[in-house]
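Priority: low. Protein: Holliday junction branch migration complex subunit RuvA. Input follows.
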Amino acid sequence: MIAFVRGQVASIRPTETVLDVGGVGLQLHCTPSTTAELRVGNEAQLAASLVVREDSLTLYGFGTDDERTVFELLQTASGVGPRLAQAMLSVHTPDDLRRAVAAEDLVALTKVPGIGKKGAQRIVIELKDKLGAASSTAGAQPQLNGAAPRGGWQDQVRTALLGLGWSARDADAAVEQVAPMAAENGHTADVSSLLKAALRTLAKS
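Result:
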């Protein structure tokens, strides 16, 4: 089992990063909140979860051990694979998910693309006794020396949203919603921050 990966950040995209670990570039799929705290050239340590399939080995990286734990617990629910689990953690923090499951808040759960009412009900039933209670610190993200990639933010944010399961129509609408924020920041616009803002916009819709 791979518990964590530590190395120099070689590249960053809104939902993935590559860490140079002893001369080997390891690609890790991450939530926008994790990549937003990374900076190319700096060393970072990410909690990791290796998903093994017949035709692939995929690493997922997290800013906290708690986020990784919730990621793995989510996959014990029927119909929840690693991509959907990552999408859930992209829309909600670990504690938000704990509160939603504990309160049987189907509305909050169905804000995640790919989760319908029946799927949300199933998640509540199967995970209510597994996720535990929310705490004030469990979902907190540490500072990981971060700055997300810049340039062509519209395409990057749109691609990331599509990869997380949102429709092209929803992705385009979210990009339009956060455009004023990008305009305000000008050349300092941060793609991962814009992606998080877009996800918040979609979650409210």
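The first strand starts at residue 4 and ends at 13. Residues 15 and 30 are 5 Å apart (CA to CA).
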